[in-house]
């Protein structure tokens, strides 16, 4: 990740958290990990970002929250894969 701060909200028992952190580690992406079971403010942040749910992993990337994205989506979010350009809708005739 080129300069964008990444924070990952996790728990110790979460398999998806482990997989996401392993993916980031393998690709040399730096991040800050916050265990929501040890940090009440972090738990509230996660719940606010996910409609009241304790959804982990939740990523905060460049000020935006992403609840448990698939690995291919995470790769795009952290800049490992270029996201395809969004095409403008075509005018109907």
Give an overview in words.
- 31% of the residues lie in helices and 18% in strands.
- The chain is globular, with a radius of gyration of 15 Å.
- The longest helix has 12 residues, at 15-26.
- It is α+β, with helices and mostly antiparallel strands and 93 residues long.
- The protein has a domain at 20-56.
- It has a four-stranded mixed sheet, with helices on one face.
How are helices and strands ordered from N to C? EHEHEEH
Largest sheet: 4 strands, mixed
The rounded distance between the terminal residues' Cα atoms is: 43 Å
Q: What would you report as the Rg, rounded to the nearest angstrom?
A: 15 Å
* Overall geometric form: globular
Task: List low-confidence stretches.
Answer: none
What structural class do the secondary elements suggest?
A: alpha+beta
pLDDT averaged over residues:
89
Short overview:
With 93 residues, the protein is of the alpha+beta class. It has a domain at 20-56.
SSE topology:
Blueprint lengths: L5 E5 L4 H12 L5 E4 L4 H10 L8 E4 L2 E4 L3 H7 L16
Write out key terms for the chains shown:
93 residues, alpha+beta, 4-stranded mixed β-sheet, 3 helices, 4 strands, 18% strand
